[in-house]
Amino acid sequence: MGTLFVGGALTLTLGALAYPSMLGLDTVSTSTDRVISNTQWGPLTEGDRDFVVKVRAAGLWEYPLGQIGLQKGTSKAVLTASEHLVDGHAALDTTCRKIAPMLNITLPNVASPQQEGFVTQLKGETGTQFDTDFANILRQTHGSIFNTVAKIRSTTKNSLVRALADQANDTVLDHITVMEQTGLVDFDSTIFQQTTPPKLPKSDLTPPAPVAGQPQVVLTAPPNATSTPVDIDGIAGQAAGNGNANGNANGNGNATAGGTGTGN
User: Fold this and answer.
1) Over the chain, what HEC string results?
2) What is the pTM of this model?
3) With CB atoms 3.0 to 4.6 Å apart as the test, which of 21, 73, 79, 173 could cross-link to 53 if both were Cys?
């Protein structure tokens, strides 16, 4: 019974991460490469926006699950994996919360109903059952999102989204690795779930929009944090500098061509 239940859980989690989350934003196209805004950091597509929301939503359930793992894990490997979840998602969340307002992206304050369901499920488990379900569910979900991270990293033209994808790539690969190091992962099951997307209602897969006036949830870094957020201020400053340089270059070119300019 436990194995069958885990199989269903894995399917639901895959759905929660594999489908786009539209939060407080109108969508008039199903094309993920449709540009929805042009920013000073490059064009922002539907796929870019969905990726930022997905990273935020992942942290909203995997971070607390890491905290639960620190309390319930019965092996050193599971405890280590739990530490990595808390550490990595705290840093990713800081980056998400930094770039979201810059790109006019609305972030959720809670994960999707299905994602929250997995937190509830694992809260009710103990011992070997907890360790096994913990390792398999999280190995499968991270394996699923890994391909999404790679696609965004290779296609986005937005430097802020690209920086988040770089950080997410390192974090997800780290989390895949520590889950595998528990020795509890059933690869046949997890790989099957990764390659067999479920058909679930979109309402179960989408994080609800934040309540107006509600403080934004912050995933606090642990005292011994080793992961660091992206230096978004540095990237933004570099973009501004490049813009000024291009503007000056254009200005100089116009002055030379017109013969009346004074800027050098």
Assistant:
1) CHHHHHHHHHHHHHHHHHCCCCCCCCCCCCCCCCEEEEECCEEEEHHHHHHHHHHHHHHHHHHHHHHHHHHHCCCHHHHHHHHHHHHHHHHHHHHHHHHHHHCCCCCCCCCCHHHHHHHHHHHCCCHHHHHHHHHHHHHHHHHHHHHHHHHHHHHCCCHHHHHHHHHHHHHHHHHHHHHHCCCCCCHHHHHHHHCCCCCCCHHHHCCCCCCCCCCCCCCCCCCCCCCCCCCHHHHHHHHHHHHHHHHHHHHHHHHHHHCCCCCC
2) 0.80
3) 21
